[in-house]
From TrEMBL:
Coiled coil: none annotated. It comes from the Bacteria. InterPro entries: HTH-like_dom (IPR025948), Integrase_cat-core (IPR001584), RNaseH-like_sf (IPR012337), RNaseH_sf (IPR036397), Transpos_IS3 (IPR048020), Transposase_8 (IPR002514), Transposase_IS3/IS150/IS904 (IPR050900), Trp_repressor/repl_initiator (IPR010921). Residues 220-380 form the Integrase catalytic domain. This is IS3 family transposase. Residues 395-417 are annotated as: Disordered.
Amino acid sequence: MSEGKKRRTHSAEFKAKIGLEAVRGVKTINEIAQEHNVHPQLVTQWKKEILENASALFDTKRGPKPVDESSPEDKLYSEIGRLKIEADWLKKKLGPVSRDERMDWIEPEHANLPLTRQCELAGVPRATVYRRLEAMVRQQQEDQEDNALRTLIDEEYTNRPFYGSRRMVVFLKGRGHRVNRKRVQRLMREMDLAGMAPGPATSKPHPQHKVYPYLLRGVAITRPNQVWSTDLTYIRLARGFAYLVAIIDWYSRRVLAWRISNSMDASFCVDCLEDALRHHGKPEVFNSDQGAQFTSDAFTGVLKREGVAISMDGRGRALDNIFVERLWRNVKYEDVYLKGYANMAELTVGLAQYFAFYNAERPHQALDYETPDHVYRAGAGGGALIVDKFGDVDRERETDGSTGQRRAAAGVEMDTA
C-alpha cells in the first residue's frame, strides 16, 4: 500500500478541540473541516460524540481543588524542568512514530516557524508536504464548486420542490454546469432535499425509529395551539451551509421557535421544541415529516411527556406540511437570498430580525392581511385545512366562508405581502 493511502490518526485532544468548535456553532462544518484538514463527516461525528457523552462529566462529585501556594519562581523552574524531561522523553520516542503521524504535525500557516524548518524537525520530506498542500488546494477548489452547485440547487428547489436529482441535472446543465447524477444526488442528500412527489425513498426515517400516522387530513384547524408543525431546511452561506429548524402554529402561521445548526443532529431540534413548549404552552397535535431528527426517541419523547398527539406526513404527500414549506420560501426569497449571509453569526442575527418582522409586521394574504402575532393573540382570522384530494377544495368553498381556510384548503396559499 502506498504512503498516500495510509489512514491518518488523530489524538483525543485534537478530536475534542474540533468537536467543541463544531458544538459552538460559530462556523459551518465545511469551514472547520477545511481549516483543520479533516473530512466534514469526521467533524460531524466528533460533535455527535461530544453531545452524547457530555452528561458523563457530571456523574461524579468533585470537591474543591487544593490551593497552590508555591511562588512564581518555583512554578517557573518546575515548568522548565518538566519541559526538559518531556523533550528528552519525546526524542527517545520519535523513532517508532510513523511518517503519516509526523506529517500531521506540519502547520503551513505557522507564524514563527518556516515550513522548511518544520519538515526538518519532524523528519519528513518537503516534496511530500508540498504534494499534500496541493491536494488540499484542489479539495478546496472542489468544495467551492460544490458550494456553487448547492446555491443553484437550493434556488431551483425553492421554486420547484418537486424536482428530483434527474431534473436537477438537466437544470444545472442549462446553467453551464455539466455534472453527473451521482454528484447531484450527493449534494441533495447533504442538503436534506428530495423531490416532493410519490415514489420510493422520498423520505428516509431511521430504520429503528417509529413512524406515526398522519392525523390531520380533512381536519379543520379552528384555533391557535391546536396544531403545530416543524421542518428542516438548508441555508447556504459564503463558506459551507447551515440547517434551520422552525416550529409554526398552523392557525395563525406564527413562528413559535427556531434554531440553526451546522449539522443535522436531533439535539437542536429538541432544543427548539422545548423552547416553544416553554413559552407557548403545548398543542393538541404536533406534525412533522418522517426525518430521523423528528422520529428520534429524544424528540418524540418530549411530545409524549407533554401528552401531545404525534402526527407525521404521509410519504409522497407534498401538501401535508404545506405551511412550513411556504415559510421556507418566504424566508429564503425575502431574507436569505437578498442578504447572502457569510457565516453562522450573521445568519443568527439576520434570522432573528426577519422572524420578528415576519410575526409582528408582515401582513399575510391568507390571514386577510393581518399579522401572525395579531391572529395568534386574538384567536380569530386564521384557520387551515389539509384536504384529502383536490376535489375536496370545491366542497370546502361551499361550506366554509373563511377566506383563510379556503386558501389553505386549496393548498396554494401565496402569503404575499
